[in-house]
């Protein structure tokens, strides 16, 4: 059980938990100011990150992007809220008011030694929460304006059991998101154009992508006679035929694998001939196949 489920802890903080739950929405739209600190990177940012059996790389990026606070903490007290105190609670979960001691701040402002937040915790087949005890957790959250020490999780399930692999992956993600040239979110495939070359089997397909920031992103697919098609992505205004595909477990991979439509919109294919339009569609399908699926494991409420 959680530390505060012990009867001697529950009563002293029940009132605080009820007040906190009443005043703080679990996932609000107000993010507040963003803070990013330099993170000493001790693991590779590209392939080789240990697989997480419960969360995919895309799951962790989904949680990390909206967070302006990511920290490691130990749960000191927890009070399970009654159903009437937890509106919108998904089936199979319990909502807890949690007081935790910060053990390490990965990004964010100085929060002091302790923090408070609400978290939805999955229940087992008997309707019981996991026996975490004082096991360390990762918290991905936003600060609450004018409420020092209070946090809002970026998602109801954004308190995660801490594992070395999970921390390593998160540190790699946060290091990338702190860079000035972070790849933007992909919103659309705007145009696809294939131009055949002079030789049979020769040609190039250009894919121009829409982004949330308006920044240019393009993919070039090259075909040469007797060779497999090759492709690369450019996150600049220069359409670079020497570009390469993004490495797995990077933010560039996430943006493409999770942002590109699974099928080419017909209106986006502006190739001149029917044959060229067919090749452009084939090249786009090859890009998707090489990227692989945007796997997500979270049972999001």
Average pLDDT value? 85
Binned, the helix content reads: 10-25%
* Count of discrete domains: 2
The CATH topology assignment of the largest domain is OB fold (Dihydrolipoamide Acetyltransferase, E2P)
User: Total helix count?
Assistant: 5
Number of strands: 10
Low-confidence stretches: 4-10, 25-49
H and E string: HHEEEEEEHEEEEHH
Largest sheet: 6 strands, antiparallel
Q: What is the CATH class designation of the largest domain?
A: Mainly Beta
| Class from secondary-structure proportions | alpha+beta
Annotated CATH architecture of the largest domain: Beta Barrel
How far apart are the first and last residues' alpha carbons, in Å?
A: 23 Å
Q: Which descriptor suits the 3D outline?
A: elongated
Quick overview:
With 301 residues, this protein is α+β, with helices and mostly antiparallel strands. The chain contains five helices and ten strands; from the N terminus they run ααββββββαββββαα.
Task: Lay out the secondary structure.
Layout: H1 7-23, H2 57-64, E1 69-80, E2 93-107, E3 114-122, E4 136-143, E5 151-153, E6 159-161, H3 164-177, E7 186-196, E8 203-211, E9 217-223, E10 230-234, H4 251-259, H5 274-291
Antiparallel strand pairs: 1-2, 1-4, 2-3, 4-5, 4-6, 7-8, 8-9, 9-10
Helix pairs in contact: 2-3
Q: Keyphrases for this structure?
A:
10 strands, OB fold (Dihydrolipoamide Acetyltransferase, E2P), 6-stranded antiparallel beta sheet, 4-stranded antiparallel beta sheet, 5 helices, alpha+beta, 301 residues
């Amino acid at each position: 059980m959680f530390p505060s489920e012990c009867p001697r802890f529950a009563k002293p903080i029940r009132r605080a938990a009820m007040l906190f739950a009443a005043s703080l929405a679990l996932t609000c739209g107000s993010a507040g100011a963003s803070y990013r600190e330099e993170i000493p990177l001790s693991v590779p940012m590209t392939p080789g990150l240990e697989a997480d059996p419960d969360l995919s790389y895309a799951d962790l990026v989904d949680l990390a992007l909206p967070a302006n606070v990511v920290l490691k903490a130990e749960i000191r007290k927890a009070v399970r809220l009654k159903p009437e105190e937890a509106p919108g609670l998904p089936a199979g979960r319990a909502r807890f008011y949690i007081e935790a001691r910060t053990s390490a701040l990965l990004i964010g402002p100085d929060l002091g030694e302790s923090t408070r937040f609400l978290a939805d915790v999955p229940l087992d087949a008997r309707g019981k929460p996991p026996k975490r005890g004082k096991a360390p957790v990762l918290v991905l959250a936003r600060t609450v304006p004018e409420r020092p020490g209070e946090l809002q999780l970026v998602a109801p399930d954004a308190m995660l059991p801490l594992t070395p692999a999970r921390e390593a992956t998160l540190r790699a993600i946060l290091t990338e998101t702190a860079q000035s040239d972070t790849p933007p979110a992909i919103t659309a495939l705007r145009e696809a154009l294939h131009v055949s070359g002079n030789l049979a089997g020769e040609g190039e397909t250009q894919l121009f992508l829409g982004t949330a920031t308006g920044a240019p992103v393009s993919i070039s697919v090259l075909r040469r006679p007797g060779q497999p098609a090759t492709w690369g992505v450019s996150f600049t205004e220069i359409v670079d035929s020497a570009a390469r595909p993004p490495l797995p477990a990077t933010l560039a991979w996430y943006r493409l694998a999770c942002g590109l439509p699974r099928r080419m919109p017909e209106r986006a294919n502006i190739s001149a001939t029917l044959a060229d339009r067919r090749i452009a569609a084939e090249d786009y399908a090859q890009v998707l196949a090489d990227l692989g699926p945007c796997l997500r494991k979270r049972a999001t409420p």
